[in-house]
Amino acid sequence: MRNILLTIKYLGTAYSGWQVQANAPSVQQTLQDAVEKLFGVRESVVGCSRTDAGVHANMYCCNVRTSSALPCDVVVRGLNAHLPDDIAVLSCRDVDYDFHARYDCCGKEYIYIIHNSHIRDPFLLGRSWDFKKHIDAEYLNKQAQSFVGTHDFKAFCASGSSVQSTVRTVKSFRVTRDGENVIMSVKADGFLYNMVRIMVGTLTDITLGRIKPDTIPEIIASCERKNAGVTAPPQGLYLNRVYYSGEEL
Question: pLDDT-derived band of residue 80, with 50, 70 and 90 as boundaries?
């Protein structure tokens, strides 16, 4: 038996998220179907994290324990031949048999794309949040620095989470503008359920005047979800990078 690490990317529009669902298509199930067609047996595909319906991934990692002896380059080509156009395997490599894509992950980076214009961009349909009021990216970048550090982010966690601790360390948070797009990028050692989307929603609520400027520290300290902003829609969110031991976060 061997353990292989797959790096994939996907457009999440047509899926209920990563995890297998009873009555809806998921990225995990689609990948497992491709693995079964290639290897001839149903193998378990272990993902690095859950992603919600409509969320995308520029980099997603998963591991598969298998008795197949197919070389990694053949695995990449073979899986891509069995996958739909909105999922692609980028790489494959052998890892230690006890490696676990989720539990060995030491950090992630997400980006969120806001199309900040009064006119929609058809090419960004389902891939960004259309937001009409002008965003001062430089100003929001300064506001977002209050997220950086080790905090209890309970106020930025949606209900339904079963985690034991809501303390996370945010390594960086950047808000930049690229033409009509505002891009928010956040790195952390881990994320809570809907944490990034609530952070984004809080920053946009500052733009809309619904939340007072310079109050993010107070919102964090309150540990009350009601004090944070709206949950930004899923289609603007991308898992951008996954970090493992030895990689600088």
Answer: very high
Contact criterion met (CB below 8 Å) for 183 and 217: no
Q: Please answer whether residues 220 and 212 qualify as being in contact, where contact means their C-beta atoms are separated by less than 8 angstroms.
A: no
Two tokens at 180?
A: 């009509």
Query: What torsion do the CA atoms of 178, 179, 181, 185 make, to the nearest 10 degrees?
Result: 10
Indicate which residue of 33, 52, 136, 178 is catalytic: 52
Q: What are phi and psi of 186, to 5 degrees?
A: -135, 135
Collapsing DSSP to helix, strand or coil, 235 comes out as helix
Active site residue 96: no
Per-residue pLDDT band for 189 (boundaries 50, 70, 90) equals very high
pTM over 0.85: yes
228, amino acid identity: A
Cα 109 to Cα 59: distance, rounded to the nearest angstrom: 10
